[in-house]
């Protein structure tokens, strides 16, 4: 009796309703992509999903079998490198993907190659993105690559690129160059869509401002837009034709969301048309005011 309640509590503490809902939606999107677009038209994606479909093409094995088996090493690596919680979400997502792939009937949606490449990629990206938002994963290539880079001295991106390049070369050799090119379109569409689903409107951007009216810009960002700033001491000038003319200046840096950046840039340029601004995408942040706000 006590053992049962302990297991039940453990499950509830790991899997929230939101995480389960996002995982299920993501798995269904991925299955629609694979069975409705990619397999009927002999299209592939990159990563473990692409390898699984390639095995299906060559050996006519149910694609759910290699998809589950190839992801299991990732679940183990996730357990060792990230933790039990993440491994549990990854395991659930992979098992659900195998089950839904086997039981959900999905008709061929289109025979048009361009539509298959684009919308197949969109649904793959939605699937991967929603599952990641739910705390799991259905394509473990990236973490496997991160684990391998310590052994072979290559970066994660280099390993992923090498594996995907191999996949696309095999497609070109066995299925034709046209299928390989369409599969590349599918892969990059999925990549962009999954990035957008994961980051969404919350994607953060670093905005840097160099202005002769630094105090005005500081006040605008902090007091009008309620944003924290970091100020570096720098030097402006040194222009072609007046290289020796230079002035000390404050370099103002703030972190804003994708939706806010245009509005803040517009306000800055209205306040000081001479201000120089540029933006940079941020891969990740930790600590500080921004992290605290995001966690809420």
Automatic annotation (TrEMBL):
Q: What sections of the protein cross the membrane?
A: 20-38, 58-79, 86-107, 113-138, 159-177
Question: What are the subcellular locations of this protein?
Answer: Cell membrane
Q: Could you give one GO CC term from the UniProt record?
A: plasma membrane
Q: Does the keyword Cell cycle apply?
A: no
Q: Report the membrane topology from the UniProt record.
A: Multi-pass membrane protein
List each copy of the DUF2179 domain by range: 247-287
Identify the Pfam families for this entry: DUF2179 (PF10035), YitT_membrane (PF02588)
Q: PANTHER family from the entry?
A: UPF0750 MEMBRANE PROTEIN YITT-RELATED, UPF0750 MEMBRANE PROTEIN YQFU
Indicate the secretion signal residues.
none
Look up the domain of life of the source.
Bacteria
Q: Which UniProt keywords apply?
A: Cell membrane, Membrane, Transmembrane, Transmembrane helix
What's the protein here called? DUF2179 domain-containing protein
Q: Which InterPro entries match?
A: DUF2179, N-reg_PII/ATP_PRibTrfase_C, UPF0750_membrane, YitT
């Amino acid at each position: 009796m006590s053992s049962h309640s302990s297991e039940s509590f453990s499950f509830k503490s790991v899997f929230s309703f939101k995480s389960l809902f996002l995982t299920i939606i993501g798995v269904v999107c991925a299955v629609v992509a694979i069975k409705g677009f990619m397999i009927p038209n002999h299209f592939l994606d990159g990563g473990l999903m692409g390898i699984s479909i390639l095995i299906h093409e060559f050996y006519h094995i149910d694609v759910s079998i290699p998809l589950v088996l190839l992801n299991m090493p990732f679940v183990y690596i996730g357990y060792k490198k990230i933790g039990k919680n993440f491994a549990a979400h990854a395991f659930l997502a992979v098992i659900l993907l195998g089950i839904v792939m086997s039981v959900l009937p999905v008709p061929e949606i289109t025979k048009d190659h361009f539509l298959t490449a684009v919308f197949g990629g969109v649904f793959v990206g939605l699937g991967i993105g929603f599952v990641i938002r739910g705390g799991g994963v259905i394509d473990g290539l990236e973490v496997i690559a991160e684990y391998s880079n310590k052994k072979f001295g290559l970066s994660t991106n280099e390993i992923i690129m090498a594996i995907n390049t191999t996949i696309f070369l095999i497609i070109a050799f066995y299925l034709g160059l046209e299928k390989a090119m369409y599969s590349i379109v599918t892969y990059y569409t999925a990549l962009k869509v999954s990035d957008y689903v994961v980051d969404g409107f919350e994607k953060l951007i670093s905005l840097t401002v160099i202005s002769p009216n630094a105090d005005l810009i500081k006040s605008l960002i902090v007091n009008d837009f309620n944003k924290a700033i970091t100020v570096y001491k720098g030097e402006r000038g040194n222009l072609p034709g007046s290289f020796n003319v230079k002035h000390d200046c404050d370099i103002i840096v703030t972190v804003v969301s994708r939706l806010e950046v245009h509005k803040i840039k517009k306000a800055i340029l209205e306040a000081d048309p001479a201000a120089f601004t540029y933006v940079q995408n941020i891969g990740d942040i930790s600590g500080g005011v921004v992290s605290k706000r995001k966690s809420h």
